[in-house]
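Hey, can you fold this one?
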Amino acid sequence: MTGYRRTLEQLKEVMRRINAGEVNPVSLIYWRMHRELNLDMIMKAGGELVLDVGCGACDYMIPLESAGKRCVGIDPIYETSIAECKKKGRELQLIQGIGEYLPFRDEVFDLVLLLSTLQHVKDQEAVLSEARRVLKKGGALAVSVPLNRNALSFRRKKPKGYTMTFSLSDFRRLLVKSGFRISKERCFGFFPLGMSRLLLLPYAMLGDKAVERLIGLLDALTYRLRVASASVVAVCRRGE
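Sure. Predicted structure:
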């Protein structure tokens, strides 16, 4: 099994565990808050025709379509995206494929999403080059990655399903090198290794909302300490 095929199999296993309720509930709360932050920035980026590269469970496509945007999703694990849409009672335009080879002509989309995608792909630069190619002039790219190499990360190995880990400086350099200009950036989350386990007790005692407030408080306290953040989302404009 090739390295990238192994990555895809690991991603399928992660999705299976999430659907089976086998993931730490604190992590699920964090992911939900992160999605809400991403969605807020996406809505402000503008544009009508949206391409979601690595659309996964279509968590962004569904609210964007509800807001009146037209969306196309592409993902190598196509069957998972289809199953998630059926479960949610939605019919969306989905295509099986990878970000390195987007089956669209040049300058089609107003907005391209690469949300929690780059850490899973085989060739990050090729994916960003393709995203730039299919974007209209003046179009926007919304991109997010986890910051697994921040100041408080002690992980020595890539997490399962990852082909690459990022620091904030890595992320910025990659975007600029790929011909994008960062117009807005937001780091999120104080979530060092073991935090999800530490918050299990307050979760068990106080429930979702209390843990959500704790995560929000930690994020607010470390908002300007970007080297300690757990993830970053940026809206970029295509350079000429």
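The mean pLDDT is 82. Let me know if you want another pass with a different chain boundary.
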